[in-house]
Amino acid sequence: MRVFITDLGSSLSTELARNCQDAGLEVLGTAARGGKSEMAALKRQLQSHPSSDVDGAAKEPVALQSDPAAWRRLVQMADVVVVTAVVSDPKLAMETLKAFEKRGVTKGDEETNEDESGEN
């Protein structure tokens, strides 16, 4: 299962990510403050955990918050989204949830098509 967490650099998100990884979940998320250097550090941190070394794991688990196309792609890969920045950035929180909602519609359409063709 994949969990997308906003602002992986915050203390709350860091703790959530660690707990999710300890539970065997793959963590994806955004780097909000430090640009590419923060993104690289967060990527190393996530990929150094043993739970990240599985088949099908995302090659780029962290996207810059300033790159909507990249983080929306990660949101659409996720099974669960945790928004930790609702108060500090409500616009981003809503955009994240809308991207996740679209993912559900697309995934639902794919499952319906599979059911109609007799595949599972």
UniProtKB/TrEMBL annotation:
Residues 39-58, 100-120 are annotated as: Disordered. It comes from the Eukaryota. Residues 111-120 have a biased composition (Acidic residues). Residues 100-110 have a biased composition (Basic and acidic residues). This is Pyrroline-5-carboxylate reductase catalytic N-terminal domain-containing protein. It comes from Phytophthora ramorum.
